[in-house]
Amino acid sequence: MEFRKDAPLIALIAGEASGDILGAGLMQSLQARYPGARFIGVGGSEMAAAGLDSLFPMEKLSVMGITEVLAHLPELLRLRKQLVRFLLEQQPDVVIGIDSPDFTLPIARRLHERGLKTVHYVSPSVWAWRQGRIKGIKKSIDLMLCLLPFEARFYEDHQVPVAFVGHPLADRVPLQTDTPAARKALGLRSDDTLLAVLPGSRGGEVGQLMPVFLDAMVALNASRPALRFVIPAANAARREQIETLLEQAPDLPVTLVDGESRTVMAAADVILMSSGTATLEGLLVGKPMVVGYRVGKVTYAIARRLVKSEFVSLPNLLCREAMVPELIQDDLTCDAIVAEVNRWLDNPAQAQALVSRFQAVHEQLRGGASEKAADAVSQLLER
């Protein structure tokens, strides 16, 4: 197949909001190199704004957890088939799957077998669990783009072509956090002690985490009446879900914000949050945090047997030591949360030491991820 040098046809597939942001950044950097490039595949509003022609709405792909995915499986398999058929017809110069590996990697494998060039952007946590997947990944892609340095080392050890590109968020978040400005933007008082509470962006996560987070907020409020709480709601459905739960504690001094999760974190003294990409944002805004996570019993029993990593949160993985407390599954109790939040609030020197460690990591992750990713993709295209 002849490579359309001036106007390549580039396919991208993103399955959730974080992938949509990455995809849009990569598209803009590729556009600078190939002004005539055309973009097809699946993405959200950010990628659409950057010029993607999306085959179906990305929201159809956003589900979490093993048991949750099972309910949507027939629909997901149908969409996957439709996408493979479409891409084989279109014959793009390269296909870039962004995150959502359970959906995107099997597509990459089928297309790779049929001679298309395939890239995966954002490594699955293969270094942490189900390491055997590396064999399948090797057969599915021409290039892995990693956001984090410890991931790239793992692929090099397994002879998989890899580029460490840094994390786009590290470029977008300033090295110095302006906490007073964040508070002002949210209409919060500058002199309050503030706990940001982030129970996750998906319905299942909020259902699992918010009740115990709320118990802890009530207990903290009893012992620290001056403490204020602020919760960003990822979307309208999450807002409704959180509001319903908050009705159980009508007197809590809590501010609910639509979106703006990074501003909320920047405004806080301490963050209580769900494990996930948001913990990286917490690191980048340089805040002490308490990380909690809980999934269905079946999902947890399966995951526990497969996990090879001693940490789950990105701050601990990046610092290679336990910098922030991780309260997972049965360890996630009201008492444990209260104790850990109090520990940060009562030890400003410890919090300050954490912030300087986080800053060093932030600097390591900076440096134009979208640019580096586009460089690696264009080298593959022109090979």
Automatic annotation (TrEMBL):
NCBIfam families: lpxB
Keyword set includes Lipid biosynthesis: yes
Gene3D superfamilies the record matches: Glycogen Phosphorylase B (3.40.50.2000)
GO MF term list: lipid-A-disaccharide synthase activity; phospholipid binding
GO BP term, pick one: lipid A biosynthetic process
Keyword Lipid metabolism: yes
Catalysis performed (reactions): a lipid X + a UDP-2-N,3-O-bis[(3R)-3-hydroxyacyl]-alpha-D-glucosamine = a lipid A disaccharide + UDP + H(+)
Family named by the database record: Belongs to the LpxB family.
InterPro entries, sorted: Glyco_trans_19
Listed pathway(s): Bacterial outer membrane biogenesis; LPS lipid A biosynthesis
Transmembrane spans: none
EC annotation from Swiss-Prot or TrEMBL: 2.4.1.182
One Gene Ontology term, aspect cellular component: membrane
Gene: lpxB
Stated name of the protein: Lipid-A-disaccharide synthase
This protein's UniProt keywords: Glycosyltransferase, Lipid A biosynthesis, Lipid biosynthesis, Lipid metabolism, Transferase
Task performed by this protein: Condensation of UDP-2,3-diacylglucosamine and 2,3-diacylglucosamine-1-phosphate to form lipid A disaccharide, a precursor of lipid A, a phosphorylated glycolipid that anchors the lipopolysaccharide to the outer membrane of the cell.
